[in-house]
Design brief:
Elements (H helix, E strand, L loop, with lengths): L10 H13 L3 H11 L75 H11 L26 E10 L3 H12 L3 E5 L8 E8 L2 E8 L2 H4 L14 H11 L2 E9 L2 H10 L4 E7 L5 E8 L2 E7 L18 E2 L2 H4 L7 E10 L3 H12 L2 E6 L1 H4 L6 E7 L6 E7 L8 H8 L4 E9 L2 H10 L14 H5 L1 H5 L5 H10 L2 E4 L3 E7 L10 E9 L1 E3 L5 E3 L11 H20 L1
Parallel strand pairs: 1-4, 5-8, 10-13, 14-17
Antiparallel strand pairs: 1-5, 2-3, 2-9, 3-4, 6-7, 7-8, 10-14, 11-12, 12-13, 15-16, 16-17, 18-19
Length: 552
Amino acid sequence: MKVECGGCFSNSIFLKTFQQTIESRVFLLHFPYFFICCLYPMKLSSSSPFFPSSSSIHSHTPFLPRNTQNSNHAATPLLSSNHIPPRFTSPQHKNTNTLTNSNNNTKTNTKTTISMAIETETQTQTQTGFKLVGFKNFVRANPKSDRFNVKRFHHVEFWCTDATNTARRFSHGLGMPIVAKSDLSTGNLTHASYLLRSGDLNFLFSAAYSPSISLSSPSSTAAIPTFSASTCFSFSASHGLAVRAVAVEVEDAEVAFTTSVNLGAIPSSPPVILENNVKLAEVHLYGDVVLRYVSYNDLNPNQNPNLFFLPGFERVSDESSNSSLDFGIRRLDHAVGNVPELSSAVKYVKQFTGFHEFAEFTAEDVGTSESGLNSVVLANNEETVLLPMNEPVYGTKRKSQIETYLEHNEGAGLQHLALMSADIFRTLREMRKRSGVGGFEFMPSPPVTYYRNLKNRVGDVLSDEQIKECEELGILVDRDDQGTLLQIFTKPIGDRPTIFIEIIQRVGCMLKDEEGKEYQKGGCGGFGKGNFSELFKSIEEYEKTLETRRTA
């Protein structure tokens, strides 16, 4: 078989990344990616069981544009899914049509291939220069060090086994109407996806259809071109309901991806071009979570009806979307990940994004007498994208809640999403109405003494009436030298004690941009350092109830 290289990336990028993988001893795990992405596009002189015929491959171009002959078709992947080697698939689904192995359906409790690759690669990086100094000694500075322009959070994608009912539950519980869809009714034979929106917050819920259905189509119909049914099945089996992608809007997804890979990011999905020159690409963040880059080529998606979200999605009518739902949630404030080892994870993300350290906490800052954590918050230049990461503290009296998460999630993953509210009192009243009827339950409220001492801790920022309302709703309050934070946490939102949601409101830190418009400084009021102890106690008490039932 003769192969002619078309060069998806420049030789320098290939050689540098090739050298990095050799040095990190994960070449065999990465090789399929290099073969597909760095030698593609290619011409095959003879048929092969591993690659499509030359007629199915586009002409020599660094990206594969969306099929313009059928607007329902997503961008063509580099190779069709049934021909791609399992470069980032879990060991338990090498046979992609089954979740069981040949040993009498015995489950293999192993890390996913990509998790091992990330762990191996990041552990080889030098530890020099990274040392937690704790909250008191940390000095906040913004060096404006982004490697590429990151504008904002774009969306968060959950992978699940039933997108229809999961999306409806979140819509009901958070007051977020379903505004767009891509499913069988829109011509998507690969996955069902439903978009919820409230203000600038976008939640996307996706589930796979049977692979046999999508294989009946002559070309890809997936609205998310990076979606893989087999990977989704394996992901859900390993993690339950969980976040697959944290998407950020960037100036150019191609530049962001190429720069990231050049600087050590582990690639997941190379850039593809959708309709209207929308670009999408992915690199691995931690565990099986990807950082997704989305760019619009200077077009405004809010003003262009064809760019309401992503090409391939259709708007949902007001009658079926509950468009009147609005609990006051406005945007994603931060997305928190749990990792087994913080130093290597932080270094990995900082290296390819250029994000700076916005805050940090150690076990001495936030722990209880029984458990603790270490945490670092990374931020982009504008401090509109905040990515905290936690690690467990081992050897404590009790197993850390982070360690519990890592066990039940089968590795690193996204722990919680902090949703910014314009009026947390209104948001909480609406959410609590639905707690027992399909909504979300909240962690137990702190003791009465917490609110008796609140005035002394936060000053006159809140009136006596507002403090009373905080007590009634179970809201925690904290303050730093810049502003005030109001926050509350749900119980885990799925079957496993893993992912949960935080509702917050930040008060203060108002600035004006060049046009005179007011905006709030990112991270105003901090991250609830003064409430970590109360939160830990609450979570520990919740976990104790689970342990009591198990030992009874």
